[in-house]
């Protein structure tokens, strides 16, 4: 090797080492401060919600932000707030399947079975083999005591995606009700 090649190789190694040191120092400087003695750590969900609300103010109607805000509300059993966020999202993106599924679940939690059924069935209108919608409709019917309808939906969920979470839950539901 000539002297020029050695100098370039050493320079490259030095730059790599400096880059690694910079990353380590940058991570230390950007880490959240440790909680002081006697104080609790900040509420991550509240912080996330505040950040998302700020982003939503800049991008009203932004589907991923609205969906995440709805999920945070669901996690805190704030179903009315989740419903409003999901309905807002669906006004701008009516074909958003995940939001429609969540809205069906939220309506169910709010004991609005007509809404839960309507929202979930609307998914099947465009995707008749959606295992999540099929499972959810089966659960709605089973919880209402309509076991024949529950069996129909759960059998179809198993047929459409037996190895998915919804397919597995549908199979378990069928075993419970004798299907």
Major β-sheet, in short? none
N to C succession of SSEs: HHHHHHHHH
Q: Which class best fits the helix and strand makeup?
A: mainly alpha
**Span from first to last CA?**
76 Å
CATH superfamily of the domain at 45-116: Tetratricopeptide repeat domain
Strand content: under 5%
Mean pLDDT over the residues: 82
Poorly predicted parts? 8-41
CATH topology of the domain at 45-116: Serine Threonine Protein Phosphatase 5, Tetratricopeptide repeat
CATH architectural designation of the domain at 45-116: Alpha Horseshoe
Helical segment count: 9
Radius of gyration in whole Å, from Cα?
25 Å
CATH C-level category of the domain at 45-116: Mainly Alpha
Helix content: over 70%
The gross shape turns out to be globular
Number of strands: 0
How would you portray this structure in words?
The protein is mainly α. Among the domains are: 45-116, Alpha Horseshoe (Serine Threonine Protein Phosphatase 5, Tetratricopeptide repeat), CATH 1.25.40; 128-179, no CATH class. It is built from nine helices and no strands. The protein is globular and about 60 Å long.
Write the layout of secondary structure elements.
Elements: H1 3-30, H2 44-58, H3 63-75, H4 79-92, H5 97-109, H6 113-126, H7 131-143, H8 147-161, H9 165-177
Helix pairs in contact: 2-3, 3-4, 3-5, 4-5, 5-6, 5-7, 6-7, 7-8, 7-9, 8-9
Quick gist of this model?
The chain is mainly alpha-helical. It is about 75% helix and about 0% strand.
């Amino acid at each position: 090797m000539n002297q020029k090649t050695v100098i370039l190789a050493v320079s490259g190694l030095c730059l790599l080492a400096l880059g690694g040191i910079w990353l380590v120092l940058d991570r230390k400087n950007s880490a959240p401060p440790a909680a002081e003695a006697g104080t609790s750590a900040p509420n991550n969900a509240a912080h996330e919600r505040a950040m998302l609300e700020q982003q939503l103010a800049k991008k009203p109607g932004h589907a991923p932000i609205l969906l995440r805000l709805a999920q945070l509300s669901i996690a805190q059993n704030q179903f009315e707030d989740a419903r409003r966020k999901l309905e807002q999202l669906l006004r701008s993106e009516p074909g958003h399947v995940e939001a429609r599924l969540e809205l069906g679940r939220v309506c169910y939690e709010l004991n609005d079975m007509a809404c839960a059924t309507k929202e979930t069935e609307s998914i099947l209108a465009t995707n008749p083999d959606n295992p999540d919608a099929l499972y959810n409709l089966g659960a709605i019917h089973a919880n209402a005591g309509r076991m024949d309808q529950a069996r129909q939906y759960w059998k179809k969920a198993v047929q459409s995606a037996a190895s998915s979470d919804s397919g597995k839950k549908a199979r378990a539901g069928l075993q419970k009700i004798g299907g």
